Task: inverse folding
């Protein structure tokens, strides 16, 4: 909780003032029954109109001051709670944006969404209620018991006995309720995860006619969550009725015993009314206190989850080396790099070593699952949990600042992500440092100009997040243009031409080989014709380097490459 508590420093004044105003409200609230007792005993029963009027004015003043105290307490509590929640949400979102892919996948997008929304809302509610009630409720209960003893010690034992029994009951109830709330949160995460899979993979699910199976899986998770929620609600459902029952029984007993004392002349009517008021105050505050414990328990569980996401550690040395010119061609080198995905029992890459000189173009080819895309992700800095060394311009990648790395390395993945907005926005992503000439150059190199010319609004055509209206190849060209527009010195194309027709792909490869600035380029593909004009080709076989040479040399010296080439040539 230490990380979450740091966010309170900015709002420490509000966090101090809110309970302080609540304490002043408590003092006036505890004094009200004494004024009422005086009004009844000395004013009404004593037939003293002046005393009644004076007591009435005092009650009005107490009510006004109590209202003002409550207002400022609520304001400062809400201000602090909403501010802390907003700061946590902003930092968590920023943290997730900068997290390497390995840790991002380990946490899970459904958990991140839950953390940014539901969990932080629970934290906000917990802070709000805590600032308002953490001092008020205990002070009212303790103060009411003390004031009751001041009025009449014997009848006050009834109140004290009721409070002790209720305290034990609330503690037992909470000991069962808190674990139940944690189970409910886990069930909610499971349901969010299966919902996300169903919504993002709806085309695949429908294409393979798995709609009913997916629905059954959702129903099972939903029923599990429902059972946990019912269990949690069942435990909590006893709290208010039992509290009301016990307090009302105590009130009945108090009035009964008080009536006998009034008849005997050993207790005044005003004192009985005052004791009744204190009993009512205790009832209200005990219920508030129980609800506070429930809310704080939920908030604490959520805070633990959020803190675990805020404090997740990326593999880095802590240094932040600069890249002098991110747009100049860069040198890339892998030295004995081994990598394994989280949860896998076998290495995806094993002792991979190769070097790409500045301005050189290399191709990476291999069968599905040979580790091609993993090399691309590692070269772009998306994963950091690897063994070995990755160098850019002779500097260890983990020591290079994240901003410089993202400026220097541009990666285009096979599946282009489309954002809601215009085509131009999807290319620029509102990057202020992009020149119009760079954007136009990227559009032409990606062969996207013919797509824009076919659209009525050209680059200002509005797209949905699904990219409706664009073919798979057009989406890929849009993604390529987005990467090229940033003028990276190291360009990585991870099978990003797989949906292009042969003519367009050949035109694009020619454009890349002649691209201004001569960036170091890594082209990953399953098709040899896409990389055969590269300076060198890296052949990957089961996560290992099979060969690394030019196309002509590989045809002469590498049997597996030659077989693959002949097989693809026959297929073509």
Result:
């Amino acid at each position: 909780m230490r990380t979450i508590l740091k966010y309170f420093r900015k709002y420490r004044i509000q966090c101090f003032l809110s309970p302080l105003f609540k304490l002043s409200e408590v003092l006036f609230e505890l004094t009200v029954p004494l004024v009422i007792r005086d009004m009844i005993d000395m004013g009404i029963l004593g037939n003293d109109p002046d005393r009644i009027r004076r007591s009435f004015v005092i009650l009005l003043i107490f009510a006004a001051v109590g209202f003002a105290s409550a207002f400022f307490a609520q304001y400062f509590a809400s201000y602090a709670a909403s501010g802390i929640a907003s700061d946590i949400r902003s930092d968590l979102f920023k943290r997730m944006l900068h997290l390497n892919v390995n840790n991002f996948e380990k946490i899970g997008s459904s958990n991140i969404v839950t953390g940014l929304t539901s969990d932080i809302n629970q934290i906000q509610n917990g802070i709000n209620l805590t600032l308002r009630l953490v001092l008020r409720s205990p002070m009212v209960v303790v103060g009411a018991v003390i004031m009751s003893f001041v009025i009449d010690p014997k009848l006050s034992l009834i109140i004290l006995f009721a409070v002790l029994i209720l305290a034990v009951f609330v503690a037992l109830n909470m000991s069962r309720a808190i674990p139940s709330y944690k189970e409910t949160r886990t069930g909610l995460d499971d349901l969010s995860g299966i919902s996300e899979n169903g919504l993002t993979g709806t085309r695949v699910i429908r294409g393979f006619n798995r709609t009913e199976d997916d629905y059954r899986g959702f129903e099972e998770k939903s029923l599990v969550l429902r059972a946990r929620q019912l269990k949690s609600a069942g435990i909590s459902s006893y709290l208010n009725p039992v509290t009301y029952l016990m307090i009302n029984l105590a009130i009945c007993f108090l009035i009964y015993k008080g009536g006998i004392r009034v008849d005997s002349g050993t207790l005044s009517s005003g004192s009985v009314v005052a004791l009744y008021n204190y009993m009512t105050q205790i009832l209200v505050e005990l219920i508030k206190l129980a609800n506070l414990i429930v809310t704080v328990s939920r908030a604490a569980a959520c805070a633990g989850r959020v803190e675990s996401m805020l404090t997740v550690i990326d593999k880095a040395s802590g240094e932040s080396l600069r890249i002098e010119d991110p747009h100049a061609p860069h040198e890339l080198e892998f030295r004995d790099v081994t990598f394994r995905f989280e949860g896998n029992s076998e290495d995806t890459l094993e002792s991979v070593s190769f070097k790409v000189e500045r301005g050189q173009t290399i191709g990476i080819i291999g069968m599905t699952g040979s580790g091609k895309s993993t090399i691309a992700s590692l070269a772009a800095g998306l994963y950091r949990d690897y063994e070995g060394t990755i160098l850019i311009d002779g500097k260890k990648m983990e020591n290079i600042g994240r901003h410089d790395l993202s400026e220097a390395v541009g990666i285009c993945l096979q599946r282009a992500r489309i954002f809601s907005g215009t085509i131009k926005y999807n290319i620029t992503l509102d990057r202020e440092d992009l020149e119009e000439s760079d954007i136009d150059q990227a559009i032409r190199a990606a062969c996207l100009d013919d797509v824009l010319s076919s659209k009525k609004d050209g680059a200002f055509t509005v797209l949905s997040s699904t990219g409706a209206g664009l073919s798979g190849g057009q989406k890929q060209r849009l993604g390529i243009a987005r990467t090229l527009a940033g003028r990276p010195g190291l360009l990585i194309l991870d099978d990003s031409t797989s949906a292009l027709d042969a003519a367009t792909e050949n035109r694009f490869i020619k454009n890349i080989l002649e691209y201004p600035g001569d960036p170091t380029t890594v082209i990953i593909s399953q098709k040899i014709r896409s990389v055969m004009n590269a300076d060198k080709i890296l052949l990957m076989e089961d996560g290992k380097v099979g060969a690394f040479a030019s196309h002509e040399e590989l045809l002469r010296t590498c049997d597996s490459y030659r077989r693959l080439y002949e097989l693809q040539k026959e297929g073509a």
About this structure: Residues 492 and 522 are 5 Å apart (CA to CA). The first strand starts at residue 332 and ends at 339. The longest helix spans residues 49-98.
